[in-house]
Structure prediction request, 286 residues.
Amino acid sequence: MASTTTPSLADLFKTLQFAWFIGHVLTLFGSVFYVLSLIIFRSSIFAYTLAYAGALVSYAVVLYKTYGSPKLTADYGRRLSTDENTYYLVLSLLWLSQPPMAVTLIPFVTFSAFHVLGYLRTTLLPVLLAEQQQHKQPHQTGSSSNASGSQTGAEPWQTKTQQQIKTWTDTNYGPAMRFVAQVEVVGVMGRLLLGVFSLRFLPIFLFAQFLRSRYHLSTYTRMSFSDLASNLNRVLLPPTASSKVPLLVSKVYTNVRDMLIRFATNTTPAAATTPTPATTSTSTTN
Prediction:
């Protein structure tokens, strides 16, 4: 008898990969329900917490699968410090400890959407298809003509759905990662800078360190910083700046810009070819 290589649903539910998938599902649904609660002016702290609890689960699973149980060694700490999944795990804890900020959910829910779709396409749908075919086999005995007719008909809905998911993700992955980088650079940091007036400096410092690592690790983040600098240069620096912009403002902007460039390029956390979290998490747990 030929052995089947496709696991059953019961086997699937017992894997760490399924826990990783559930974490991303929680992030996805928690984020959606939190945004809906904002729309109806009934902010749901539970939905916000659920979204980041899911993120903690999924990124913790990735790190455990990659590096094993935590160890109090310098080598273990060094490897963790160069993994983007560590940064997003720490960010999840940071945002949970701060007053809710909807904009911080955008990167996490975007990653989770691609992870959930990827898991459905590569793991869950093939298992459902295999189980469906196994259930059909006993009924096909003695009715080979009907069975052959059904086999030559329309392809299974699981196969169609897999192809649709692949087409959609292949088309939208790049633009989505570019959007995430823009949100992190402009949206999240901009929102944190508003917190200066509330004397919340620690989140700004920690997120600045995160963006510095992302600058070296992600092409999309570097592109977002480049776009931001180009736009600010055009608005604040001659000859394209308006004549109403004071010279002092242009000078202060130039000094701040140069200081930030030195801060970003001073230390390289890891090689710039490290994959984005959306790719890292999927490949690590698949």
About this structure: Residues 9-131+159-285 form one domain.
